Amino acid sequence: MGTLYLVRHGQASFGADDYDQLSPRGHEQAVRLGAYWRERGLQFDAVLCGTLRRHAQTLQGIQQGLEGTPEPLLMPGLNEYDSHALIHCVHPMPLPRPDTPELYKQHFRLLCDAMAQWMAGTISPAGMPCWDDFSGGVRAALDHVRRQHTGHNVLLVSSGGPIAAAVGEVLCTPPEVTIALNMRIRNSAVTEFSISPKRLMLQTFNTLPHLDTPEHRGWATHA
């Protein structure tokens, strides 16, 4: 039986004009994760990765710390939803930059509300697939792993939304639980599934073992 390691990208550029770019801390998180695995002798037989810039940069950091991985299979179905398009559906007026705790909370309250409506099919954010198609892309990645990589260690680099959808698929969670899981996934966090030909099973969720030292505990971030 193999293990699928799902990794959320490192800290990106929340609040900036271009979110899809790792911050210096995000790059450090990714390199540290790869080094942590190298120190423990973990090697991967296959790699799956979304096609967003922050996914590629996170994988590059992991590869740097791990000192190599197989060439990734790029899967657009592992890309994140468009949070701005979602929020615009429930709050059409422009929001101020979320640079205070109150504005940060407002941003994520609106996002959770929009996600619930998107999953229920009551809104259709511009430029985005419906929820069934979004979750279907995640399901296709999981099916590929289950069919092709039983007995292997597989790395999957993506975002909080697809990883929460993957956990929801495996555990059959209702939408409100999937949304809650999404909001809790930390940057560079690791979620593990055991792989068998018939099913995937959750082993761990949202862990940061690579940051569990006095030197690195201050590196944990959420956005």
In short:
With 223 residues, the protein is α/β, with parallel strands linked by helices. It has two domains: 2-80 and 129-219, Rossmann fold (3-Layer(aba) Sandwich), CATH 3.40.50; 82-127, no CATH class. It is 44% helix and 15% strand.
Characterization of the model:
The protein has helices at residues 24-39, 53-66, 83-90, 101-120, 131-148, 160-171, 175-184, and strands spanning 2-8, 46-49, 73-74, 153-158, 190-195, 200-207. The protein has a 6-stranded mixed β-sheet with strand order 3-2-4-1-5-6. Strand 5 and strand 6 form a beta hairpin. The chain is built from 7 helices and 6 strands; from the N terminus they run E-H-E-H-E-H-H-H-E-H-H-E-E. Helix 3 (83-90) crosses helix 4 (101-120) and helix 6 (160-171) crosses helix 7 (175-184). It is α/β, with parallel strands linked by helices. This is Broad specificity phosphatase PhoE.
Q: What is the CATH T-level topology of the largest domain?
A: Rossmann fold
Distance between the termini: 33 Å
> Average pLDDT across residues?
96
The biggest beta sheet is recorded as: 6 strands, mixed
Helical content (DSSP H or I, runs of 4+) = 40-55%
State the oligomer: single chain
* Shape label: globular
Number of domains: 2
Q: What's the gyration radius in Å?
A: 17 Å
- Record the strand order, biggest sheet: 3-2-4-1-5-6
Range of strand content: 5-15%
Order of helices and strands: EHEHEHHHEHHEE
The number of helical runs is: 7
CATH class of the largest domain: Alpha Beta
Q: Determine the structural class based on helices, strands and strand pairing.
A: alpha/beta
CATH architecture grouping of the largest domain: 3-Layer(aba) Sandwich
Low-confidence stretches: none
